[in-house]
Design brief:
With 134 residues, the chain is mainly beta. The chain has one helix and eight strands; from the N terminus they run αββββββββ. An eight-stranded antiparallel beta barrel has the order 1-2-3-4-5-6-7-8. 37% of the residues are buried.
Length: 134
């Protein structure tokens, strides 16, 4: 799922850096899911504190709100799903880590409802995305 929100988002004491990340995330990101056979692009769209995710299939999407966790390393995003193709995920929290490097966004996240946060970008059981600003 989205995080699979997904699906996103560190060093302590760097609030201006995190604000910069929030600003830097705004817009549409298009890319691939690492380890997936489907060749179609995936999308993350950030607008204010709202996030949308569209997977390779029409039935792999969700929308919600997000906040950044500036005190973590790697940086984290915590999302709450408000709309989803699969009703079981609505109202659940999704946790992910991210790396923002210019126009490249790397995101690794677990399924919504999983209370754990991935510890690395290649964490087992997580979805991994590499996206470019669209």
């Amino acid at each position: 799922m989205l995080l699979s929100l997904a699906a996103l988002l560190g060093t302590a004491g760097c609030a201006s850096l995190r604000h910069s990340d929030s600003t830097g995330l705004q817009g549409t990101w298009k890319g691939q899911e690492i380890g997936s056979n489907a060749g179609d692009s995936r999308y993350f769209i950030f607008s204010g504190n709202r996030i949308e995710f569209q997977g390779a299939n029409n039935d792999d999407w969700c929308r919600g709100t997000f906040t950044l966790r500036p005190e973590t390393n790697p940086p984290q995003i915590v999302g709450t799903i408000t709309e989803c193709h699969d009703a079981q995920y609505i109202g659940k929290t999704a946790r992910a880590i991210y790396r923002l490097d210019g126009d490249t966004l790397t995101v690794t996240g677990y399924e919504p409802g999983n209370p754990d946060v991935p510890s690395a970008f290649d964490a087992p059981g997580a979805r991994h995305f590499v996206l470019k600003r669209d």
